[in-house]
């Protein structure tokens, strides 16, 4: 049997390889790292998480991304299995020890006899075979050129940013305190999953002034891409209005200062554990394009972080993606070259889980093809089906931008009440319908 070849061992490529091997089909997984490095990656491990360590909400009743978690678990997804094994307390979110997670994914793939991991860059798209391109947003320049040549279009792009990571022992816990928003979580560890740094109004205003005045990374000439709204640099948010941050990542609601319970903070900066040892914390929502020197000065203005030591500072990078509605069919094949499937963030989905989900789906489709079968996508009443439907035809091609999974992609339920007040009934109805339809789709394979 001819193997399926996958370019890229990120979250999507790793998941695709696992799904194909589970079907009894051999896989060759090509990964250019560490021989060819990227700005954002630090290791040669498969499924390295770059921007944060969170898979977001794990609520599969009231949240679309939680429903996507459920669907991937039902399909025996490797990414979710390793995330569950290496999860950290994070309130209602699924956060992981990112180094241990990537190492475990790598070992699992290496130990699978049907998977061969082949190091080195694939610089040109192949002319034939059964291939999945899962190179992610940081596709190498040479391969990106090959993609542009084949599709006849310029790659679309947006800018993505990375949040800094702080050494836990440099956080002043006489000022900061441990608490999840609204004390969310069933265990004490979950209820105290975040470290909170309070600001009064004067401190907040001074912080905003410093953010706006700080030296920023400048883009190269000709780089006109915008930002993905779900991962905006904090200084860009501040430029949209001085109150934007305290209604976003610095909102103080649901938190009570353990040191001064009668004093309401004007704004709160939250940090989330980044490893199982609890020695590293990332600053939640603090993606930034400030230059390194400016970052240390500005972030040390945060009460509790005045002596912060940084294990990693933030940064910004350019992400490329396809205009998938015009280029991919519903089997995720490239229309001009159907022997090529695309998966992951390069298809125009945004987020770790969404990228891995597209890898899962592309892997199952490629595996089915290798076995002489055809696999249709899940119904678009499911989270996975709604997402792939959006990128392969549901979105408007002229305004196509990266998209997280959300209930707005699901077909409406006419009998359910609309608006904010209807969500408590509508969202569970969406997820129950999705579970029923997804289970039927899996059972038919």
UniProtKB/TrEMBL annotation:
| Reactions accelerated catalytically | uridine(54) in tRNA + (6R)-5,10-methylene-5,6,7,8-tetrahydrofolate + NADH + H(+) = 5-methyluridine(54) in tRNA + (6S)-5,6,7,8-tetrahydrofolate + NAD(+); uridine(54) in tRNA + (6R)-5,10-methylene-5,6,7,8-tetrahydrofolate + NADPH + H(+) = 5-methyluridine(54) in tRNA + (6S)-5,6,7,8-tetrahydrofolate + NADP(+)
List the InterPro entries.
FAD/NAD-bd_sf, MnmG-rel, MnmG-rel_CS, MnmG_N, TrmFO
Which amino acids does the record list as binding FAD? 8-13
The alphabetical list of record keywords is: Cytoplasm, FAD, Flavoprotein, Methyltransferase, NAD, NADP, Transferase, tRNA processing
Which GO BP terms, alphabetically?
tRNA methylation; tRNA wobble uridine modification
**Record EC number:** 2.1.1.74
Q: Which SUPFAM superfamilies match?
A: FAD/NAD(P)-binding domain
Q: Locate the MnmG N-terminal domain: which residues?
A: 4-373
User: Coiled-coil intervals in this record?
Assistant: none
Which molecular function terms from Gene Ontology are attached?
Answer: flavin adenine dinucleotide binding; tRNA (uracil(54)-C5)-methyltransferase activity, 5,10-methylenetetrahydrofolate-dependent
Q: Where does the UniProt annotation locate this protein? A: Cytoplasm
Which cofactors is this protein said to need?
A: FAD
One Pfam entry for this protein is GIDA
Q: What does this protein do?
A: NAD-binding protein involved in the addition of a carboxymethylaminomethyl (cmnm) group at the wobble position (U34) of certain tRNAs, forming tRNA-cmnm(5)s(2)U34.
- What this protein is called in its record is Methylenetetrahydrofolate--tRNA-(uracil-5-)-methyltransferase TrmFO
Originating species: Paracoccus aestuarii
Gene that encodes the chain? trmFO
């Amino acid at each position: 049997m001819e193997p399926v070849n996958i370019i890229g061992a990120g979250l999507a490529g790793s998941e695709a390889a696992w799904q194909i091997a589970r079907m009894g089909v051999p896989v060759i997984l090509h990964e250019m790292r560490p021989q060819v490095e990227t700005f954002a990656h630090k290791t040669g491990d498969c499924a390295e998480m770059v921007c944060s360590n969170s898979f977001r909400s794990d609520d599969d009743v009231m949240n679309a991304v939680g429903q996507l978690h459920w669907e991937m678990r039902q399909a025996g997804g490797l990414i979710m299995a390793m995330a569950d094994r290496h999860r950290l307390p994070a309130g209602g979110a699924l956060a992981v020890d990112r180094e241990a997670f990537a190492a475990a994914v790598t070992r699992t793939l290496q130990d699978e006899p049907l998977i061969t991991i082949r190091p080195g860059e694939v610089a040109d798209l192949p002319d034939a075979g059964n291939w999945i391109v899962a190179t992610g947003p940081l596709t190498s320049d040479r391969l990106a050129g090959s993609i542009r040549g084949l599709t006849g279009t310029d790659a679309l792009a947006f800018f993505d940013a990375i949040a800094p990571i702080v050494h836990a022992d440099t956080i002043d816990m006489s000022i900061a305190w441990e608490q999840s928003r609204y004390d969310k979580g069933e265990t004490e560890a979950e209820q105290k999953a975040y470290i909170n740094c309070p600001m009064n109004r004067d401190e907040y205003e001074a912080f905003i002034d410093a953010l706006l005045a700080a030296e920023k990374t400048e883009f190269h000439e000709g780089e006109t891409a915008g930002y993905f709204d779900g991962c905006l640099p904090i200084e860009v948010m501040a430029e949209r209005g001085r109150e934007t941050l305290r209604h976003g990542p610095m909102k103080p609601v649901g938190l009570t200062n353990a040191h001064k319970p009668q004093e309401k903070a004007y704004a709160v900066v939250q940090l989330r554990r980044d490893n199982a040892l609890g020695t590293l914390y990332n600053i939640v929502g603090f993606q930034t394009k400030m230059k390194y020197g400016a970052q240390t000065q500005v972030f040390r203005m945060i009460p509790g972080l005045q002596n912060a030591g940084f294990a990693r500072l933030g940064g910004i990078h350019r992400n490329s993606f396809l205009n998938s509605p015009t280029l991919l069919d519903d089997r995720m094949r490239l229309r001009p070259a159907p022997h090529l499937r695309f998966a992951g963030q390069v298809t125009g989905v945004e987020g770790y889980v969404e990228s891995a989900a597209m890898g899962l789906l592309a892997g199952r489709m490629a595996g089915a093809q290798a076995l002489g079968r055809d696999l249709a996508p899940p119904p678009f009443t499911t989270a996975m089906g709604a997402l792939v439907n959006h990128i392969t035809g549901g979105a408007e091609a002229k305004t196509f931008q990266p998209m997280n999974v959300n209930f707005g992609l699901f077909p409406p339920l006419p009998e359910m009440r609309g608006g904010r007040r209807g969500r408590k009934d509508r969202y569970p109805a969406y997820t129950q319908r999705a579970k029923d339809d997804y289970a039927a789709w899996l059972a038919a394979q």
